[in-house]
Amino acid sequence: xxxxxxxxxxxxxxxVQRGLIGEIIGRLEERGLKLAGAKFMQIxxxxxxEHYGEHEDxxxxxxxxxxxxxxxxxxxxxxxxxxxxxxxxxxGTTDPAEAQPGTIRGDLGLDLGQNVIHGSDHEDxxxxxREIDLFFDEDELVDWEKSDAEWVY
Length: 153
Ligand code: RTP
Ligand code: MG
What we know:
The chain has about 150 residues and is an alpha+beta fold. It has a single domain (about 15-140), classed as Nucleoside diphosphate kinase-like domain (Alpha-Beta Plaits), CATH 3.30.70. Helix content is about 35%, strand content about 20%. The chain has seven helices and four strands, in the order βααβααβααβα. The protein binds ribavirin triphosphate and magnesium ion. Ribavirin triphosphate binds near residues 55, 64, 94, 115 and 119. Belongs to the NDK family. Keywords: ATP-binding, Cytoplasm, Kinase, Magnesium, Metal-binding, Nucleotide metabolism, Nucleotide-binding, Phosphoprotein, Transferase.
């Protein structure tokens, strides 16, 4: 089994507006991933450009920036074995119309623009660390272990 890693996940503005934060966090918890950080925040133009910089030359870039800055997002860091790939699998493909039932986008997404969740690209080495650094300071992340100690149960 591969070692634990951290990945960046975000409930996009459409997911926040539609009240899907809890549903999405619930799915990640149930899968056994561990939350390492969370921040309910508004993305500004500059951060949007940095975060989606890889798409700067694409025709949909301006619309993407407008959408991701249109309302608050729930930015998070999740941890687990192979977490980046795991989350991408749970998300489903970019276009919800193509995404498998059972995936977050397949079950909850509306269309290519309104696809409720972002996760770091597992095929882009270092994307997870880069995005975590972009959204979080080191002291906003929590190192903790799951416990079945007496104070829990
Ligand atoms: P994300 O980065 O948001 O997690 O999505 P992704 O990896 O599945 O897809 P990506 O290729 O990185 O595209 C980023 C977002 O841009 C929008 N998009 N529109 N009109 C289009 O052809 C088009 N292609 C992509 C999507 O909202 C996608 O999530
Ligand atoms: Mg992407």
